[in-house]
Write a structure and sequence with these properties.
- This protein has 5 helices and no strands.
- It has one domain.
- By secondary structure, the protein is mostly helical.
- 30% of the residues are buried.
C-alpha cells in the first residue's frame, strides 16, 4: 500500500530531493537507505504530528503537479514559515543522524570516507 509517507510517496520524493542537495556526494545506495529510514521514522511519529507531516507531504505532492519539484524543495529548504519549514528540518535531522551513525566516516558532503586505524 502506497502512502504519502512512503519512500515512493510525496514525502519520500521530497526527502530524496532535499538530501541530493544537502548531501550531494552521498552514494545512491546510501541515499535510498537513508530515505527509507526517514520515511519509516515519519510513519512512527505520534498521531497528531504524523497528521501534520502527512498533510504537508500531500501538499508537496499536489504542488508537484503544478510547480517544478525542485522549486518546491528549494522553497521548503529555506522557508521560516511556521510548521511548513519544519518538514525540511525533520528530514535533515533524521537523515543526518542516520548517515553519521550508520557510516561515521562520511564526509560533510555525503561522500564515503576511508576508515583509518
Amino acid at each position: 500500500m502506497r502512502t504519502a509517507l512512503a519512500p515512493d510517496g510525496p514525502f519520500g520524493r521530497f526527502a530524496e530531493r532535499l538530501l541530493v542537495l544537502e548531501l550531494p556526494d552521498l552514494p545512491t545506495d546510501r541515499l535510498r537507505t537513508t530515505v527509507a529510514f526517514v520515511c519509516r521514522r515519519a510513519q512512527q511519529v505520534p498521531g497528531p504530528l504524523r497528521l501534520g507531516v502527512t498533510t504537508l507531504a500531500v501538499g508537496t505532492g499536489v504542488a508537484e503537479r503544478f510547480v517544478d519539484p525542485d522549486r518546491i524543495v528549494g522553497f521548503l529548504r529555506v522557508t521560516e514559515l511556521p510548521l511548513v519549514g519544519e518538514l525540511a528540518r525533520m528530514v535533515r535531522s533524521l537523515a543526518f543522524a542516520f548517515v553519521w551513525e550508520t557510516w561515521p566516516d562520511t564526509s560533510p558532503s555525503g561522500a564515503p570516507g576511508t576508515v583509518t586505524a
